[in-house]
Amino acid sequence: MATGHFKQGIAGGRLSPEQYADNFSDLHPPLDHHEALVESDRCYFCYDAPCMNACPTSIDIPLFIRQISTGNPIGSARTIFDQNILGGMCARVCPTETLCEEVCVREVAEGKPVQIGRLQRYATDVAMAENKQFYARAAPTGKTVAVVGAGPAGLAAAHRLARHGHDVTILEARPKAGGLNEYGIAAYKSIDNFAQAEVDYVISIGGIDIQNGKALGRDYQLSDLTRNYDAVFLGMGLGGVNALRADGEDAQGVTNAVEFIAELRQASDLASLPVGRRVVVIGGGMTAIDAAVQSKLLGAEEVTICYRRGQEHMNASEFEQDLAAANGVIIRHWLQPKRVIAEGGKVSGIELEYTAMDGEKLVGTGERLTLTADQVFKAIGQSFVPAALNGSGALLALEAGRIKVDAEGRTSLPNVWAGGDCIYGGDDLTVSAVAQGRDAAESIHRATSNGRA
């Protein structure tokens, strides 16, 4: 990825090779066999398990933990993969502290939940290490399905469709499959090229052809897909980056956090990555935390997150906020950017305005604050870019700027389904995208089997 934003004054190579390796080591080291048995024994195996209800993919959590406790990690992995074929990555990146573990009976009673995410990783890692495949393709149906995007939603849809015997072609704009799992999460959350290992595991079922470097609207049109395939699944995610709406945001040294994270994820030498000495990140979600923490780990001396509302409003979980603080990141609330200060075209600071709530409306107070910065990251969300849909844009109904779907993932166009972040209701969670892709695939299978697709 291009590094045109990073010029003199923003440099890499501040740390020793050993420091880089340590800083970007596994955030949550895997449980060994004994640790997994001990942790699984803490589960109460609730009959009406609140953890299962909190899981977007509805994994039978008590069952898979019981299987671990009885020495059957392979059976446990199958229980997980039955509902979530990307269970390995979800075990690493899911905000379990706000989903299954938040409602764990142990958490409610003792403040220390069963480590569901780490147990899920243990089981799925065992199965993947042994290349244990649980699913054979059904007899070929003769039906073909195009999947736009090889992210979590697209991969989950493709795998489920292949299980049913359909032939799937995934069209992915980037050089690698994986979507945000490959390009969009902090490097310390998924090490050792796990995202690609998972892609290989998913497509090993057969019947899935991934074509990289194929972008909707550039290399093909939606109308081509609806004409040449029996069904289409749109899982292209979000391509746009929201602007700061601050004066001077085009200055060198201002870039979007998603690009920064993607560049870091693909870097073969962390020492080569340029980072500022004083970094300001604008935003309050997981991307803001990931950009801020990784800036610090790359050698930035001072990193500050500025968020326009209060701590309780931040999309980043309490765990992620604590992680940032533990790494020396300063989080400041009730601040919105007004002007990027530049010298010679390069960022030298950012002027922010204090905010407050006026009833239910966020307003600026007029009081200003200036922070010194040689690098500013925009992490205020991404937007869907419907232009790629071309002439179909007017026919494909949108809601709040994203694709409108029904409960089965059907769009307003015949034979076209969608899921993941590109749909209205998408919530920027890998696990939710997997559930939407899986469920849309089942809908596609029913429709093609009945001849209605």
TrEMBL record:
Primary enzyme class: oxidoreductase
Ranges where the FAD/NAD(P)-binding domain occurs: 144-437
Reaction(s) catalysed (UniProt annotation): 5,6-dihydrouracil + NAD(+) = uracil + NADH + H(+); 5,6-dihydrothymine + NAD(+) = thymine + NADH + H(+)
All residue ranges annotated as the Dihydroprymidine dehydrogenase domain in the record: 22-131
Keyword annotations from UniProtKB, A to Z: Oxidoreductase
Top-level division of the source organism's lineage: Bacteria
GO molecular function, one term: iron-sulfur cluster binding
This enzyme's EC code(s): 1.3.1.1
Entry annotated with the keyword Oxidoreductase: yes
Name of one Pfam family that matches: Fer4_20
Primary role: Involved in pyrimidine base degradation. Catalyzes physiologically the reduction of uracil to 5,6-dihydrouracil (DHU) by using NADH as a specific cosubstrate. It also catalyzes the reverse reaction and the reduction of thymine to 5,6-dihydrothymine (DHT).
Description of how the protein assembles with itself and partners: Heterotetramer of 2 PreA and 2 PreT subunits.
PANTHER family per UniProt: DIHYDROPYRIMIDINE DEHYDROGENASE [NADP(+)]
Stated name of the protein: dihydrouracil dehydrogenase (NAD(+))
Organism, scientific name: Mesorhizobium muleiense
Native organism taxonomy: Bacteria, Pseudomonadati, Pseudomonadota, Alphaproteobacteria, Hyphomicrobiales
